Amino acid sequence: MNNKFVKETLDWIYAIVLALVIAMVIHIFLVQPTRVSGESMDDTLHNGQYLIVTKWQHIMRDMPDYGQIVIIDSRVNRERTWVDDVKEPLMNYVSVIDKSAQTNDVWVKRVIGRPGDTLEFKDGHVWRNGEQLQEPYTKDTTMNYSRSTPVVVPEGHVFVMGDNRNHSSDSRFIGPVPVDHVLGFVEYAL
Fold it and tell me: What is the CATH number of the domain that holds 123?
């Protein structure tokens, strides 16, 4: 009777560990649900809204397209390693139970510039390679930001901004984002 109990307990532990490993592999390499935190993407995305993020682009180091909404690691001045890719989904799980485990390093933003682009911020608008961007997704018709010198996006980087331009921390403040810091592409907002 005692051996049967031990065997059944070990079977349950094995099943739970296997399920967690499979979930981690899916979250690291394929798809991850997440939530919007903050108002930097208003009116496109809202605080608390759920997102489905595809991750294989991060693994393949795919360059996102203009206008693509992405999840980034905002710590652009540090190298990312595979440990970060494993640790972040784990911390997501832990933060469900312990809110203090939640970090503010992962942001959702829109790609505005790609390698080689020259970006200017003048007259309340973004200009890319000498042309004013038409951005119907932005919250305000003009942005309260200007810069006297243009920004050239370096190779292997993207320039990202929030749609709520007047209330967003983004590449204007942290600089261009290395493509290995683009953690995934937003595919669905629920």
Answer: 2.10.109.10
**Do 42 and 161 touch, CB atoms closer than 8 A?**
no
Q: Is-catalytic flag, 40?
A: yes
Q: How far apart are CA 90 and CA 94, in angstroms?
A: 6
Alpha helices in 30-135 (DSSP H): 56-60, 82-97
pLDDT at position 24, please? 81
In terms of Cα–Cα distance, which of 102, 85, 84 is closest to 93? 102
- For residue 146, give its domain range: 2-189
Domain count for the chain: 1
99 is catalytic: no
Query: Which of 55, 87, 100, 109 is labelled catalytic?
Result: 109
pTM: 0.84
| Residues 141-182: tens digit of each pLDDT | 889 998 899 999 999 999 999 999 999 999 999 999 999 999
CA distances to 59, 126, 132, 144 from 123, in Å: 38, 8, 10, 9
Quick: pLDDT tens for 67-95: 999 999 999 999 988 888 877 766 766 66
